[in-house]
Amino acid sequence: MPDSTTPPTPSSPSADSAGSADSSAPSSHRAKSRVTRRGVIGATGAVALGAALTPVVFAAGESNESADPAADSSTAENTKGMRTEKFPRTRSRKATGTAPVDAAFPVGYVAVRWAGTARNGASVRVTKADGSQGEWQTTGGGCAHVDGGGTALVPASGAEKYEVRAPRGASDVTSLAIDTTAGPQRNVKVPSEPTRARGLRYLSRAAWGADESLRFKDGEVNSPEVYYDAQCLTVHHTDTPNDDPDPAATVRAIYEYHAITNDWGDIGYHFLIDEAGAIYEGRYSGDDDLPAHDKDGKLVTAFHTAGFNSGNIGIALIGNLAAQRPTDAAKESLTNLVTMLARIHGLSPQAKMTFTNPVNGVTKDVDTVSGHRDWLETDCPGETMYELLGEVRKGTR
Question: Per-residue pLDDT tens for 214-273?
Fold first, then answer.
């Protein structure tokens, strides 16, 4: 959630369908102006094959081995023109309460939101196409935090139906069925060549298929961009399944979940990293050349560490790192990305510091490169990733 002295209570989505097969995005979340240059700058269109982005193409050793985080070259190095790529339109359907839901399309994820004192403890059970029911999946200490209740993103593996069981004492239960793989195709303009930020290759928002209309609500930007000097970096995991066959689709699902279910108006992280080491641009930052920053090099505020967002760079590794270690490729890309960002902002990755929230003056003593659990009560970024943060700090150069 955004930082404020009195955090706003996010509202519920105002329509049952966002970009469904038989309609465009609802008017309450439809942009009234065209996507700006930031939305398409530097996309890696050369590797997007149809609706999927093949992870192996962006393995860390292949895409980033020659990256020089201190390079003086332009952060947007693509000059070879544009091309059109196709991505599936994200389909979603909202439901209220805990009655069984028939989504009418294959469900990749179910986003759940409730009010009350319990932050965890909701459960989701899916029904597959053959009619068989899965086990109840109980939500744990995931990454996202909301004010006055709880929220979770639960994998549904293409299920046709699902039902929700709320925590004891919960109220105002809502859920959102999300499909980011099988919807009707939409055309997206992307540059023809890969993009690098200070020598480090990344996938722009256009390259992973971000629908920029999700940032709008009632014709206005839902969470207008604000910028502050970066003070530190926080590492997360997305708490989604490992061995992800289509991480770009997962990024789109997280985007829908954060922007619509949690009413943040955008994806909550500045960057995401998949198991093959591909780096994804997260939070929209306007018409600038460096992802997550404005033209003056200030950091756009995202929504990854409630109450401590402004001036705090959020990087999420895609997957669940509670028991499984991050891949070598993901760890290498994380180290390279931290190195680049620390040099840009003059930060010392191995130091400790006192963070001061520029919005509300709240302070906290943390490592310059910390884990989500250092800020709030959460399991994020998973035990194995948290144990490796010392190696990431030492690996920066």
Answer: 999 999 999 999 999 999 999 999 999 999 999 999 999 999 999 999 999 999 999 999
**Token reading at 68:** 């020089």
Cα separation, 253 vs 146, in Å, equals 18
Question: Which of 264, 180, 255, 178 lies closest to 212 in space, CA to CA?
Answer: 255
pLDDT tens, position by position, 17-45: 333 223 323 333 333 333 333 333 233 33
Q: How many CB atoms lie within 10 A of CB 35?
A: 18
Cβ atoms 73, 198 nearer than 8 A: yes
DSSP-derived 3-state class of residue 25: coil
Banded pLDDT at 347 (limits 50, 70, 90): very high
- HSE, CB side, 13 Å, CA atoms: give it for residue 362: 16
- Cβ–Cβ < 8 Å for 214, 25: yes
**How many whole angstroms separate alpha carbon 258 and alpha carbon 263?**
7
Cis, peptide link before residue 381, omega less than 30° from 0: yes
Pairwise CA distance, residues 386 & 235, whole Å: 8
Give me the residue label for tokens 């206005």: 220
**Residue 397: pLDDT band with limits 50, 70, 90:** confident
Of residues 139, 109, 134, 135, the one with CA closest to residue 123? 139
- The better pLDDT of the pair 142, 354 is held by 354
The answer for residues whose C-beta is within 8 angstroms of residue 245's C-beta and 6 or more apart is: none
Across the beta sheet with 91-96, the strand order is 91-96, 171-179, 101-115, 149-165, 123-127, 137-138
